Automatic annotation (TrEMBL):
Residues 137-285 form the Thioredoxin domain. PANTHER family: PROTEIN DIPZ, THIOL:DISULFIDE INTERCHANGE PROTEIN DSBE. It comes from the Bacteria. InterPro entries: AhpC/TSA (IPR000866), Thioredoxin-like_sf (IPR036249), Thioredoxin_domain (IPR013766), Thioredoxin_ResA/DsbE_sf (IPR050553). SUPFAM superfamilies: Thioredoxin-like (SSF52833). Pfam families: AhpC-TSA. This is Redoxin domain-containing protein. Keywords: Membrane, Transmembrane, Transmembrane helix.
Length: 453
């Protein structure tokens, strides 16, 4: 705690922050009541120190002409208002039951220091908490100069360096691969990705990126069986890149060309020899893009418009429909049901799945049977091309997994009366597949069979 206090104080002094007094008495409390233990004090103060330092780091490397985040003052003030007022309430409660909490004076002093120094209303730091904005970069955007020059913490650098700048690789294409040590698939994919990239050392670099701390990731990387022999330089302690390239799920790959232009967002499975060749040639416009924050990500395929839903005579009336379509860009791939008790319907929604998965869901076998069905002899299916039913059955070499789904995935949605039994639900779904897709799905024992007609 002593080092943390001194480092925080020194940082503020160097940054030119001018503290003013905060009148706690007149402040309106908005935080909930909490019980304060010593661990709470440390966690809250460390969190606040980190958030403020992060914002100052962003401000330090921004250029006035660059608009790189919607973070800025609004974000910092929201953090400060929410968490500082919680700390004030924690402190107030601690005073009321000081002996019970066993809170030592040094910790209270530390809390007071942060409260009086970082009041959202009464803090002014020269050239820092003013006009700082960072917005997420999209496909077609160019990396701002400040990002090229931003010092970034790394591990496993070939020259033993602890920091790099993206400008160190400005003569190459850059693939930023957002991962986590807790993501098994992310880590297991790295050796193969490194092998593929090794053939393009002069033209492209793969850089894994994680929010995890430098020391922790260094220890993990040196001990894990998939990474202990890796030569990849890994960015750690990341807080900036994740804001510039927002995503919900990892791994998440950002493709940046030699000119600093963002070309695509993808999964790691999209990194293949032929996609790298396309990328280096600038042929990425037709690629499937990993979208996770569209306004319609979890919306129904079919819905009334907002205006028609709110006309008095349309409210609470059942919307009955059956819909099939191909791959939908920008929607979530999931199987979900939605119950509407007012309209008396259940909406079944299946997005961007293979025909095999659609068959497993619609027959009630479930996706847990996927592996056993894939082990079947698919030649017994009466279909023209089993490679259209699952990526694992595709024998070609010119499509990545994402590209295969873009070409062959289906989306299906329908409403059924609320309370319909599962058996009747599956009958309806199988009948829909037969009617609209011309495919019959039959269960024999634990096996699943497809017949086209």
């Amino acid at each position: 705690m002593k080092n943390f206090y001194e480092e925080g104080r020194d940082m503020l002094t160097k940054k030119g922050c001018i503290p003013f007094n905060l009148n706690i008495i007149t402040r309106t409390y908005i935080a909930k009541d909490f019980d304060l233990e010593s661990s709470d004090v440390e966690s809250y103060t460390k969190y606040l120190e980190f958030e403020i330092y992060e914002h100052q780091l962003r401000s330090k490397y921004k250029e006035e002409q660059d608009v790189t985040s919607s973070y800025g003052n609004e974000k910092v003030n929201n953090i400060v208002q929410t968490y500082f007022l919680q700390i004030i309430r924690l402190l107030e409660n601690a005073y009321l039951k000081y002996r019970v909490a066993k809170l030592n004076f040094a910790q209270i002093s530390l809390l007071l220091y942060f409260i009086f120094t970082f009041s959202p209303i009464n803090v002014f730091c020269q050239n820092d908490f003013i006009n700082s904005k960072i917005t997420a970069l999209q496909i077609g955007d160019t990396i701002p100069n400040t990002l090229w020059q931003l010092p970034i913490k790394v591990i496993n650098h070939p020259n033993g360096r602890d920091t790099i700048k993206l400008s160190d690789y400005r003569d190459k294409g850059i693939l930023l691969n957002f991962i986590s040590s807790g993501c098994k698939g992310c880590i297991e994919a790295l050796p193969e990705l490194e092998r593929i990239i090794s053939f393009y050392d002069d033209d492209i670099v793969l850089i894994p990126v994680t929010m995890e701390k430098h020391d922790r990731m260094s220890s993990f990387f040196n001990q894990n069986e998939y990474t202990k022999n890796s030569k990849l330089t890994v960015i750690t302690d990341d807080r900036i890149l994740k804001e510039l390239f927002i995503h919900r799920y990892i791994s998440h790959v950002v493709w940046i060309d030699k000119e600093g232009i963002v070309h695509s967002f993808s999964n790691t499975a999209h990194i293949q020899d032929f996609t790298i060749a396309d990328f280096l040639a600038g042929n990425t416009k037709s690629w499937p893009v990993k979208h996770e924050f569209t306004s319609f990500y979890e919306s129904p395929i079919v819905s009334r418009t907002y205006k028609t839903e709110h006309l008095p005579n349309n409210e609470f009336k059942q919307l009955k429909y059956i819909a099939f379509t191909g791959y939908l860009d920008g929607v979530g791939a999931y199987y979900a049901t939605s119950l509407d008790t007012l309209e008396g319907v259940e909406r079944i929604s299946i997005r961007n799945v293979s025909l095999l998965d659609l068959g497993l869901i619609s027959t009630g076998l479930g996706l847990f049977k996927r592996g056993s069905v894939l082990k079947q002899d698919s030649s017994s299916w009466k279909v023209l091309n089993s490679g259209k039913y699952a990526f694992e059955l595709y024998t070609g070499k010119n499509l990545t997994r994402d590209q295969w789904y873009q070409l062959h995935a289906v989306s299906y949605e329908r409403t059924i009366p609320l309370g319909t039994s599962n058996a009747d639900k599956y009958k309806l779904m199988i009948e829909d597949i037969k009617t609209f897709l011309g495919i019959d799905v039959i269960v024999k024992g634990d096996g699943l069979f497809f017949y086209e007609f």
